[in-house]
Design goal:
5-stranded mixed β-sheet, 17 helices, Rossmann fold, RNA-binding
Length: 432
RNA sequence: GUGCCUAUAGUUUAAUGGUAGAACUCCUCUCUGUGGCAGAGGUAGCGAGAGUUCGAUUCUCUCUAGGCACCCCA
């Protein structure tokens, strides 16, 4: 169909179809997520893609960018304000509380995989519909060992994608006791500098001072170096917790770098915050300027939803981003194609029997390809070749009459005629 | 939300103020009794709308989508 005809049928901005040719990458990613989840004993949970808008507004924070300008929100006919989920954690915690999942054991390890929606301007590694695979450890106490376990699982997952040069950035953003202290120190530091800062930073000073640390503006960069560090302001509990996390990481020999500019964009985070990057370079020389995964601790989120639990830590992997890195750094998926035969018929008599014959072969566990709609032998062989079949089973007038079939090795062209009742064994023998 | 760039068959692309040429893919035939190669042929395109013009795929504007950056994030 021409483009002009489908003009109005295009997928919406930033939302992409995953076409058959691309599914191999998604299969790979899903497979490794399943593997890691099973390996570390995370149970799968799938939550609704739509939630009441308040779920996100309350938890992520009303003034965060995601809630303020990136959520797809609409009114249902009955007047409910619904939102397409912009991230996974809030829904998981909502579900955890709603269904009393603490009964399943504490802490509970959960994982999910699915689409998220944010109304952003699409660019490299950023889409309006994108997919995350996330891991959460909810309940129990706030032992730093859980933070470390979670980071470990994500680390191993990224390794299984064969992504090289991974780096783990980690920071602690304190709790509701010590963060205000730090915020004040930071503001004190920046107050005199305000006139020299970019206009975004001046806005940040009012709205979300921690984000001052994130600014990439050159002017502002020069002041960042001597910024007070949040780690110096942590209360003793937070400090102890963060040290605990780092000690586990060291014991695991997971390298990390402290990044005291790392602050996360959602209000529900406290203490541990982390992000994974890769320093690999694409074949064309471009760098990957985005986090592959990110996460942190969200103890207050549980309380917010009315849970008696007050501990949670989680992280999510951006699937499109991971796939982009895998593709652009030419990671070999190591696909081993299964051996298969291609069924070919010649003549009406044989054709009539083909479908049921193929059915018998398939019932016997033999993967069969065919192109029954084509009648010419050459055309069918061409299809067989295109599909990369290992053997062709040629069933013609003569074979139909004498209940036999030709088994042709498509690699070397050698073929022999075998009785029909022996063909299953013959093929199975050759598959070994 | 802001800024810059882009838009020609399914894909990659060429040319042009007088409506388009190729490569790859796909389909057919050479070839209902033997595939990959080759030859011949076929399907299919100017993102949408408006304006300027005798005439617009080409120039202008708007919209839509894509890319990049900012913001922010996975």
């Amino acid at each position: 169909m021409s483009r002009s005809k489908i003009q109005n049928l295009q997928s919406p901005k930033g939302m992409h179809d995953i076409l058959p040719q691309e599914q191999m990458w998604w299969d790979k990613v899903r497979k490794e997520v399943d593997y890691i989840a099973d390996y570390y004993n995370f149970s799968r949970i799938d939550t609704a893609i739509l939630e009441r808008a308040e779920i996100f507004e309350k938890s992520l924070g009303e003034t965060t960018d995601i809630v303020e300008k990136q959520m797809f929100v609409f009114k249902s006919r009955s007047g409910d304000r619904l939102a397409l989920r912009p991230e996974g954690t809030a829904s998981i915690v909502r579900s955890y509380v709603q269904h009393g999942l603490s009964h399943l054991g504490q802490p509970l390890k959960l994982f999910y995989i699915g689409p998220m929606f944010r109304k952003e301007q699409p660019q490299s590694g950023r889409f309006r519909q994108f997919h995350q695979a996330g891991f959460e450890i909810i309940g129990g106490d706030d032992d730093p060992v859980y933070d470390a376990q979670l980071i470990l699982a994500i680390y191993r997952l990224l390794e299984r994608f064969k992504i090289k040069n991974l780096s783990l950035h980690i920071n602690s953003i304190g709790c509701r006791n010590c963060r205000p202290v730090y915020r004040k120190k930071l503001l004190d530091y920046y107050r005199d500098l305000a006139p020299k800062l970019c206009k975004d930073c001046r806005r940040r000073m009012k709205q979300n001072p921690l984000r001052l640390l994130d600014c990439k503006n050159e002017q502002c960069q020069q002041y960042k170096a001597s910024t007070p560090m949040i780690l110096d302001s942590l209360c003793s509990n937070c400090n102890k917790h963060f040290k605990g996390v780092l000690e586990f990481l060291e014991e695991l020999k997971l390298s990390y770098q402290l990044d005291h500019h790392l602050v996360r964009g959602l209000d529900y985070y406290n203490r541990t915050a982390f992000e994974f990057f890769t320093d690999s370079v694409a074949e064309d020389g471009t760098k990957f300027d985005f986090a592959l995964a990110g996460g942190g601790r969200y103890d207050y989120l549980l309380e917010l939803f009315g849970s008696r639990q007050s501990s949670g830590v989680g992280g999510a992997v951006g699937m499109e981003r991971v796939i982009e890195v895998m593709r652009k750094t030419k990671i070999n998926l190591g696909l081993r194609s299964r051996q298969k035969v291609f069924f070919i018929h010649i003549g009406d008599v044989a054709k009539k029997k083909s479908l049921s014959l193929i059915e018998e072969l398939r019932d016997a566990g033999i993967p069969v390809l065919e192109s029954l709609g084509k009648d010419s032998l050459a055309a069918q062989l061409r299809s067989a070749n295109k599909e990369n079949a290992d053997y062709a089973l040629i069933f013609g007038q003569k074979e139909a009459f004498e209940d036999s079939i030709i088994v042709r090795d498509l690699k070397n062209g050698v073929q022999e005629t075998v009785p029909l009742r022996k063909v299953v064994n013959e093929v199975k023998k050759r598959f070994k």
